[in-house]
Design brief:
The protein has about 240 residues and is an all-alpha fold. It has a domain at about 15-100: Helix Hairpins (Orthogonal Bundle). The chain contains 7 helices and no strands. The longest helix has about 70 residues, at about 55-120. The radius of gyration is 65 Å and the shape is elongated. It comes from Acer yangbiense.
Amino acid sequence: MRRVFGVKKDKEPPPSINDASDRINQRGENVDQKIKNLDAELSRYKEQIKKTRPGPAQEAVKARAMRILKQKRMYEGQRDMLYNQTFNLDQVAFASEGIKDAQQTMTALKVANKELKGMMKTVKIQDIDNLQDEMMDMMDVSNEIQETLGRSYNVPDDIDEEDLMGELDALEADMGMEDEAGVPSYLQPDKEPDLDAELHLPAAPTGQAATPAGRANVQAEDEWGLPTVPRASIRD
């Protein structure tokens, strides 16, 4: 069967924009190289025209230069056409890439919208409000539990604050009376102790110096206040 009908050949995929642009750019590079070669020949012919004298030889060189110049202009026209084609292909490629980006963006937005709708079905404002109310009630109950656990067992709850302040003032007054009556003066603050008054010692005698008549009756004392022994008694 294959020998009779043959085998179906696979079709080649159509060229993409990038393939066409690369091919045209390659052709443009070949044309640019040809133009450079023609420029080199024109420069050589210009030098020959300057060196040759007017006459048939110079006219022949001019004819060759004119032929090269015509070829150069033709290649320049082809190059400009190829540049325009490349520019158009670049614009089409840019538009195509922009459309692809827009398609991807739309696809991503659709997926995100679908996911958001699915999540919004599971989350309701009423459920959030109810949850907040339950949390507030639980916090209130927790505060009541903490206050109950921190309550003192010895202090009754029905005590009036004015009564407490009155008792506190009376207690301060009693403490002041005890300080004035029972605390000795030398233990009281801001007062210097009077040792003489506490020990009931007599005051030191004050008087005039001893007269010469009574000086014989006064016994001499040493530097430590002790009576001195007369020298006569020591000799005896």
